[in-house]
Structures are given as structure tokens and as C-alpha cells.
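Changelog note: in this version the structure field was regenerated for every chain. One regenerated record is shown below for reference.
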Amino acid sequence: MGKYKQITFDSVVRNPERYIGILECIKEFEGLVLNDANLLKIVSKLYLKGIVSSDKIVIEENTTIEDIQDLVIEVNQSKKAIGGFPAGFTSRFHHYTWLPKELGFVYAKYNEPFLFSEIGKMFAEEELAEQEAFSIQAMKYNSKSPFRKNNNDYNFFKFIITVLLKKSRISYEQFIIATFSKNGDVDEFIKIISENSFNSPDEAYEFLKTDGYYGYKVNKFDTVTKTYPDVLRRVLVLSGFISIKYTGKRMMELNKNKRAYINELLAVEFTLSENQKKNPKEYFNALNSKNEKFLNIAYRYRDEDKIDGNLYLNKLLEIIKENEISEEKIIKAINLIGSKNWRVIEEFKTIPDPLKLEFFISILIVLKYGKQYNIRPNYKADHLGKPYSHASGNKGDIEIFSKEIYWLLEVTLIRNRTQQLNHETTNVIRHLFSNEEFSDRLTKYLSLIAPVIHPDTKRFFDVSAVMEKSEEYKLNLKPYNLTEFIKITQQEENFKDMEVYTQNIFEKFRNKLTTK
């Protein structure tokens, strides 16, 4: 018999943004039976593509899945059996698909065919943005499911959204208490937080330890107050449901930009039968239903998300003023991304690092070029102007434009050579030419920005500069490591630098062609 437990998702993959890479990587195995042989191929590919890493597994240019399979078995020997998957590398697969299974993106059961739902497939193929995919499936989720042995039986996302519709905001400490609700009783929860003060995680923890409260026994402070609620918080933000605001302490409020969208999602009736809550295949089929209704809402609000450059520029200018961001401050913040002691601008602490880099690069560009050009980052931002999700797959990261020029910036924290080649080469070129809005700009610029630029990535862009040469427009491009880009931007020499780099590429190719 189950018992009531704190609501959570698996915390091995703490940042839900990583799931697009995971699902994209393993999409090709759809339809295969998840036996040991096929699971070994799948997990080995996760290592091969840099999604999972180990010091014992070295990936080189010509490394294949077969080359590393024995090492994959070895480094995963200590993994315990879980979720119906045996111990070892098969257990590793379960952890990397646990949340996608709970949200109905995939069906993955040991010794059964591996399946993608319609929303899962669209997400993996970048037809849906992260925010769209997660918000749709969150509306179908239920805490009581084949993947959780508990008696909690409600949709936590709908519960916390309804709380925020009644109360303008709650503190993170109050959110910790919310994760212990047995049945999603909104009025009961509001009564609890109205009658009790929770000024710190310690106070929330002590309250949860009191006799009789929800009938829980808690004994792991970090798990209760940090690990479990933090994963839920990340999913809520990525879904576009909430915004985080610092007012001396961390506060959670409804994302006002998405209020109408949220109300329409809530209006779609979706319930699960007792059989669907117990049977994995029935649960998957249920979460793969009513897609047309949810997608129609997502598509309609995708159009409403379209925003002109001036509005985004003004929002960034407000953020710069409110947080007293100088050029020196934002450069320091960029250089410390990924640091465990990141404390440069507290307001932006919880933004995932990949989005944080896009956001900070946008701020730097505004500080240097904000009076000369329209600047439009394409990430999805809340009503505070803070990013919570990447743009859909058919858009570039940051667009700078005027009547004469179009400059596309693609920003990534990817260091892995294979991932950089897979995700930051052909897609980047496609983004540059797929935007019909700027097809008439006679001068186009393209910058790839990453912590390191691998030689193969540089070679791709050099060849692209030659292949894309046109009589109709001028194309100038350059891949930059982060340090180099910051230096050039400080000098406001970006356009000249890309022009010189591109000209040197042509000179290099001419010399090779004319040399005997």
C-alpha cells in the first residue's frame, strides 16, 4: 500500500532544459524493444553525444557506439535497479527518461517497444518550444501514476497555479509546504500559510516535523527544502507558469504574460481513470490524448508571443536600470556563469545557465548598441523580462537589425565537440536564411558564441562563408570564443571584425586554389 509523499520528480537531471537534447539524441530508437542489447546502444549514444559523461570514457572524432559499450557497462555497474529496469546501464536509461515518462513524452518499459507521444515527438524534433511542450503535458500530469507509489492524487501544477490565481505570490518557503499537500486542497493550503510564518527553510522544515501535519515524517533537510522543490520550481518556470522575484527573499508569482494562456489550458477538461493511474501503457495513451485542443491553444498564443524589437529593447533597458547593470558588472556575470559561487546579480540566480548566457549577451549588446539598432532576443520572457525558455527550433537566439543590416547571434554553452557540430552549425546557417522578415537586408552578419570553438566548427563556418556567397547580399560571419567576443564588443568593432574575418577566408581559399 502506498503512502502520502512529498511531490517530486527525479532529480538526476535537475535542469529540465536538458531533456530536449536527451530526447533528440534517442529519438532514432523509437519502436525498438528496450532489451539489454538495445538499451546498451541507447545509453552508449548518450555518452557518445556528450549528454552523459565519464572520465573513463573518452570520445574522439571517430569513436563509435561499439567502441565504448564495454566501458559504459563498467562505469554503470554501481547503478541500482529502479523503475522496473535492472541494475547497471539499464538503470541509467530509466533515470534519463523518468520525467519524460511521467509527463507522457515517451513510453519506456523494460522489454517493451520504446514509444514517443505526439507531443514528445514534436518536442524532440523542435516543432514545439520547451515552454509549449512542458506546459501542455503539465496539464495532463497526475501525482498518482504508475511511476509513483503514493496516495497523493491530484495535478500539482494545476494546484499551485490555482493558489497563485487566488494569492498574488508565495514565498519559496511556502512553496516547500505546498509540495506536501495530500490532495491539492487550495483553501487548506492558503489557510496554513495565512496562519503560519515561514521566514526560512529551517522554519518550514520544523513545521513539517510537527505531529500530525499531513501525516508525513521528514528526516532529510536538504532533500525536503532544496532538491525536491527545486526540480518542481524549474519545471514550473520552464512551462511559463510562474516568475521568480527577489524582494529580500525569493517569491513566486504567476507569469502575467501567460495568464490568458494558462486560463485556457485550465479550461480543457482532463482527468485520469483509476486504471490509467495504475497501468503504464494506459497512462501513456491517456497523456497522448486531447493534443489537438492543447496544440490549438499553444499555436494561438505562439502568435501572440511575437514581439517587436523595441518592446524587448525597452524591457532590457528597464532591467539594466532597475538592477544597476554596468558593462563591467555584466561582463563579470558572464564570466562567472557556471560557477557554484555565482552571486553577481541575485535577481537572475535561478535562470538556467544556457538561458543566462543568452540573456547576459543581450544585455551587453544593449549596453553597447542599444541606441543604434533594434535588438530582439528570441527567448521566451516573463512579465519581468526574465527568460524562462529558449525560442522554438526555427528561430535564432538574438537578432540585431536596422533598415540596412541584419545580425544574428547564436549563443551556446556547449563545449563538447560532437554536440557543437550537431547543434550549432547547420541549424545556425538555417536560422540566418529562414527569417523572411529580414530577407531584404543587403548586408547580413552571423556570430556563433561559445566558451570554446572547436577547429571542426570553425572549418564549417569558413566553408559556409564561401558556399553562401551571393550577388544579392553581403554575408559576413565569425565563430567566437566567449572571451574574444566580449573583447570585440567592448571595442564596438563587431561588424568590422566579422568583415575582416570573412574577407580573410576568401583570400585563404583563393590562395589554395591558385597554388600549384
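Spot check on this record: The chain has 23 helices and twelve strands. The chain has a mean pLDDT of 90.
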